[in-house]
Design a protein that fits this description.
Helix 1 packs across helix 10 and helix 2 packs antiparallel against helix 6. By secondary structure, this protein is of the alpha/beta class. The chain is built from ten helices and six strands, in the order αααβααβββαβααβαα. The strands form two sheets. Strands 2-1-5-6 form a four-stranded parallel β-sheet, sandwiched between helices. It binds uracil (URA). Uracil binds next to helix 5.
C-alpha cells in the first residue's frame, strides 16, 4: 500500500488544492518556462531540452538527482531511463507513491560527450552545476518540501556543501536550512553499476534509506 493514504496524511504529501496551491503552481510554471530557455552553460546546445522537475507543487518530499540521461533528454521528464526504473522499484519497495513526491535534478540539461556509438552520459562539471543552481533553488523555494532526499554525491554536495561525505553520512538525518528534514542516499545509477558486487547490497541500502524517508514523513504527519 502506498504511504499517502487519506485525510491528514494525504495533505502533507500533496497539499490538497486551494488558492495557495494555485499560486505556487503559477510560480512553478513561470520558473519552468524560464528554465526551458536557459542558455547559462553550454549544455543547452547539445541537449534536446531542459528537463525540469516533476510532481505536485505542494509535495512534502523532494528527491534531487544528478542530471538527465538520454531518455530524460528525449522525453523532458526526470528519472524515466534505466536509473529511473530502478528508482521507481525502490520507491515501490519503500512504499512511497511517486505520483505524490517531487522529483528533480541538480543539473537540468543532459551532460554528454560524443562517442562512436552516439553521445554518452558524463558527470556534470562544477561550472554547469553552478550555472544551474538557480533552478533547483527556485524549485525548493516554491515547493518548500518538508523532506529533501539527495540521490547521490552530486546532489548532496550541491545542497549540503562540497565537503559532504556521502558514504560516511548517507542515511542520516542532517542539519540544513534547505528543509526541516534532509537525508542523502546512494544514486540509483550507482546501485545499477554495483549490481554484481559481492560486497554490499546497494539496492537494499537505497531501499532502507527510502524507508527512513517514508517513516519520517509519517512521523511528521502523526
Ligand atoms: N536520470 C535523472 O533524471 N537523473 C539522474 O540523476 C539520473 C538519471
Amino acid at each position: 500500500m502506498a504511504f499517502a493514504l487519506a485525510g491528514k496524511r494525504e495533505r502533507i504529501i500533496s497539499g490538497g488544492g486551494g488558492p495557495e496551491v494555485d499560486d505556487r503552481r503559477a510560480r512553478w510554471e513561470a520558473v519552468r518556462l524560464a528554465a526551458a530557455g536557459c542558455q547559462d552553460c553550454p549544455l543547452w546546445e547539445i541537449g534536446t531540452q531542459t528537463v525540469f522537475g516533476a510532481g505536485p507543487v505542494d509535495a512534502g518530499i523532494m528527491f534531487v538527482g544528478e542530471a538527465p540521461g538520454r531518455l530524460e533528454d528525449e522525453s523532458g521528464q526526470p528519472f524515466v531511463g534505466p536509473a529511473g526504473q530502478l528508482f521507481d522499484r525502490a520507491l515501490l519497495d519503500a512504499q512511497i507513491d511517486r505520483s505524490r513526491v517531487y522529483v528533480t535534478n541538480t543539473v537540468k540539461h543532459r551532460p554528454s560527450v560524443a562517442s562512436p556509438g552516439g553521445r554518452k552520459n558524463r558527470a556534470p562539471k562544477q561550472s554547469e552545476i553552478t550555472a544551474c543552481a538557480q533552478w533547483l533553488d527556485r524549485e525548493i523555494a516554491i515547493i518548500q518540501p518538508r523532506i529533501i532526499c539527495c540521490l547521490g554525491a552530486v546532489a548532496a554536495k550541491r545542497l549540503l556543501g562540497k565537503d559532504f561525505a556521502l558514504m560516511k553520512r548517507r542515511g542520516e538525518w542532517l542539519e540544513s536550512d534547505i528543509a526541516p528534514h534532509v537525508l542523502a542516499t546512494v544514486h540509483p545509477s550507482f546501485v545499477m553499476l554495483q549490481r554484481n558486487s559481492a560486497e554490499a547490497d546497494w539496492y537494499g541500502v537505497l531501499v532502507s534509506d527510502l524507508v527512513r524517508v517514508r517513516d519520517r514523513s509519517l512521523e511528521i504527519m502523526a
